[in-house]
What does this fold into?
Amino acid sequence: MLGKSLIETKPTNFKIAATYIGEYPMEDLSDIKYTTLDIRDHDGNERLFKEFKPNVIIHTAGIGSPDYAEQHKEETWDINIGGTMDILSLCQKNKARLVYISSNGVYDGERAPYSEKNKPEPVNYYGELKLKAEKIIMKSSVSYAIVRPILMYGWNHSFERSNIVTHALKMIESGLTVHVYDDVFITPLYSIECGKAIWKIIKENKSDVFNIAGAERVSIYQMIKKLAVIFDRNEDLVKPVQQGFFNELVRRPRDTSFTTDKMQSVLHIKPLTLLEGLTAMKANRKQ
It folds into this structure.
């Protein structure tokens, strides 16, 4: 979803080599070339650097499921750490800048709202590896920026994994009940806005850590209720539950809400309210 948003918000004077994994074709455009590539494929990574000669790498690849990460630790390490180290070494060798996409999962969820000054303390293996990758990058000689998006929502490609909002919307539109947590809090982020923030970091050559989020703290239940209202669907199908209802394998942070002071003061980006983000998402549905 973030990769899709980056493509859709791309400045006109940039050319992109976009990599992905999936059993589907992606159509090249004049300034965007798609390549199927596993981040663990060193020869493929090296070939891409040699042929495309990138100035900037936006590193979004990785295992994103905390449960999957816990159950497949070796594979997750190879991708989230090994893949990152390979990309980092190629950036160093080719003098390319790195924008690393981290996560709100580096925080423990007990001391919200979080700013970039708060100490990261992950509560699961996924978060531990995100933080480890950050530290590896920070210790390198590569010019970098680290972006920590909070829970994102927006339109994903129909043939790719849905996100919490598109999944809930599909269920509600099918007349099915949606159970969502009312004791997990976030400052939800419209993925298009995250794409815009990343491009601004690149264009202005910012080298720092940035927490990127929306403007308001809500529970996931409140977010999905508002989704139903804005999309003119039956909000009674949205039911509140508490953590543990879905029997997740690993603990999740309870409240990773971000402050957006740095996002506003350094990047000069005003975060969207949930109403503004969901309204924009609804307007973009046909696109």
User: Anything to note?
Assistant: The two ends are 15 Å apart (CA to CA). The chain has one domain: 2-283. The chain has ten helices and twelve strands.
